[in-house]
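Record 1 of the preview.
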Amino acid sequence: MRYTGPLRAVSLCVGLALILSGCTGGAGTQSLYGQILNTSIASISANRASKVERPVVTRAVLNEVEEPYVQVTRERADISAYLFASAIRQDDLPGNIVQWRAEDDVTVTMRNGVLIATRGLGGDLMSAKVPVAPRQAGPATSGERIYYVRTGDLEERAISMACDLVDLGPETIEIVELRYATQHLQERCVTSDGDRPPEALRRGEGRIVNDYWVDQRAGIVWKSRQWAGPHIGYLGISQLTE
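->
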């Protein structure tokens, strides 16, 4: 069963009451989602480390949640938030697009589990061209990736990278008390000297590495670590509920 409008907030409060103590379901209030993400943005802008205490998630609580959720961690600030699937759609390219949303409307969008956009984090990833297959989770092949990154109010920059997709073999991972048999895929990407963004990809010096822990039978990327541009850096993403 899916909920919309105020009932979605009520459902969220019931399922995650032990986690998101700031959730009320009322209009005009800021949930813990918003507090965490806004603190993250502010601390990055001020070049300070944020000291927000992260709420504890248990499988008993997640078992009461009826809708899909992911946990997203912004590594530079060591800040996490929980996002629900707000839209699922298809376009004329392969794969399903899922938009994950926090209550303050910060969004992370993925195609078959591969990050293609963010909104509301500052210096956002506006879009990305990545190779995926219709019925395959995660990236499909080696090749070119193009990231379109916001650099100003009305400006964006294309960052082109050549990526090798490497299969690192089977790996069992654990996400909140459940273990999953996955295949560990890794993208190793480089960009040319002339196409490096300011501060050399924030001192990554033109190299990034994306990791995906994929269950192809279930068609799910259970966990990933993906680059979202030079301003945001890496996002760690874990699928908490299906």
